[in-house]
Amino acid sequence: MPLVAHTDLPSFARLQGEGSLIIPRDTALSQEVRELHIGLLNMMPDKALEATERQFFRLVGESNQIARFYLHPFTLDGLQRSQEGRAHVEKYYKRFADIQAEGLDALIITGANVVDPALDRQEFWDPLIEVVNWACENVTSVLCSCLATHAVLQFRYRQRRVALPAKCWGVYSHRVRDRSHPLVAGMNTRFDVPHSRFNAVTPQQFAAAGLKVLVQSDTVGVHLAVSADGLRLVFFQGHPEYDANSLLKEYKREVLRYVAGETTTYPPFPEHYFREQTRAILIEYRDRVLAAQATQQDLPPFPEALISPTLDNTWHDSAESVINNWVGQVYRAKHPHRE
Length: 339
Prior knowledge:
With 339 residues, the protein is of the alpha/beta class. Helix content is 39%, strand content 21%. The chain is built from twelve helices and eleven strands. It has helices at residues 10-17, 25-29, 46-61, 83-92, 96-102, 125-138, 147-157, 203-208, 246-259, 276-294, 304-307, 316-334, and strands spanning 3-5, 22-24, 35-41, 68-74, 106-109, 141-145, 162-176, 190-200, 212-217, 221-226, 233-236. The strands form two sheets. It has a nine-stranded mixed sheet, sandwiched between helices. Strands 1-2 form a two-stranded parallel ribbon. Helix 1 crosses helix 3. The mean pLDDT is 92.
């Protein structure tokens, strides 16, 4: 069912241009159709702020549940924003106080980019705890993504994430561990999920927290887990919302960080993501970058336009299925006598 464009948020127009079903607020109000109101606590930095909106909006909007979806983005104090980022938030996002007053049926909390591995030293730490504690008492289900999963495991379950010896970065195969759970109903038993993180919560930590692991990789560990009741808290450790080119853009940022002297090692490729021919193009590009640096020449342009058409998205269908199942569970919890 469609998303309702109840504000002038540019992501609605962008998604409509991509073919998503978006209806104006006046049309939605004129029809007797069931509604679900879903919050999006967007903690991503400015460069990924709008892309993250679209990724999660798209997944919710592709749900086949018999409801219309109102998405309500908001963010937290303590997250560093540029003037442009602050302007976007002030114009299109709600305040948390408004979210509390109006209420939600469900909440999605994105990841965030942090430098300090100690989450409890982040400026957003206390505001995030406030949001999660409120949501656990007032919202049917909270879906946590990546860093949000690590934060909630720490402050609600006393499980601190552990640093990895190297960045977990790429697209990895996962298997469903409990096929009877409604969140994975009708899904393939094996599917891909992108990951991008320097830290992890281990399977043993999820077990110690009393959480149920639904999807896991032999290579990179847990992706999907749920609280003991099966719905109140849902945890993603991967990034099923990613676009096909999300890891490419991240790789490009890492290359530019190396060029700027922010890192000392040229970045490795995300695993299981680039084709062999694409890797050859990027190796040639790396050699040209290093040669330009050595001779103090201008850097060659990154071949993003050449590479983007070669990328495969091997995870979107499974991500859509999980979100569809999640939205369905929320709807049935809110309307137990209506189908």
